[in-house]
């Protein structure tokens, strides 16, 4: 089970430490994780919370699930507070090596730390009491794999391209809320979760995908945004689970939109919406989305 270490706390065992912001694990990070596992120590990962402009790729709880799935032993969670932002590079390293018995440190060649991002891998090498491994940036089709690039793809609703850069399918985790139960009246009962405020926004629209529940994983039609046909402007994530029959209220689920189907539209009637959802369902039945359950 993943152990969570808050800022100021310590991890007493000798360890290997992955250094960076890590608001998820993409294909570039995978190289670091694989390199870290070559050392004979528990692997820890540094995770900075709330520092990304426009929101983080994944929430704190979502990240913890991702790290555990990747076989990481503990996470060092750091709030991007004013105090942390103004910590010098030297003080950051002093804190790191006093809290952790680091026997090997790994980072990407673009890793920067400390006030003004003046800390570099070279400074880390000079000050670390252990070996430091600096891993070259990963590029796909000539472009650096980065969280900012993945966010751009999410803004466009291009989930296949975004997922190709992640080591796990993009997902939205949340606890199922009580809704208005309108979907059930037209033959499409849905589960509803709130899109986390701290999470980088996904393009609004209707998607085909899957939903992972405690009862299994199901193909799903996913609506991200408002529900104008019924006069609901509140932004929610709503999913119809094909083949599911049960009660998920208050249960934790993971919604994985995989393919953008269409823009959100206001239909003239509930019957017109039902007819469109039948078309979406037919498209979903023809899709063969890879199951996400073993990777998130």
How would you concisely characterize the structure shown here?
The chain has 296 residues and is α/β, with parallel strands linked by helices. The protein is built from nine helices and 14 strands. 27% of the residues lie in helices and 31% in strands.
Structure, described:
By secondary structure, the protein is α/β, with parallel strands linked by helices. Helices cover 27% and strands 31% of the residues. It has 9 helices and 14 strands. The protein has helices spanning 27-36, 60-69, 82-85, 89-99, 121-127, 147-156, 159-165, 182-185, 270-286; strands at residues 3-6, 11-19, 43-49, 74-79, 100-108, 132-135, 139-140, 143-144, 172-175, 191-194, 205-213, 216-227, 232-241, 252-262. The protein has a 6-stranded parallel beta sheet, sandwiched between helices. Strand 7 and strand 8 (143-144) form a beta hairpin. Helix 6 runs antiparallel to helix 7 (159-165). The protein starts with a strand and ends in a 10-residue tail after the last helix. The model has no long low-confidence stretch (mean pLDDT 93).
* Rg measurement, Å: 21 Å
Q: Could you name the ranges where pLDDT drops below 50 across 5 or more consecutive residues?
A: none
SSE series: EEHEHEHHEHEEEHHEHEEEEEH
How many helical stretches? Answer: 9
In percent, how helical is the residue content?
25-40%
**First-to-last CA distance:** 14 Å
β-strand percent reads 25-35%
If strands are numbered along the chain, what order do they take across the biggest sheet?
1-4-3-2-5-6
What class would the helix/strand composition place it in?
alpha/beta
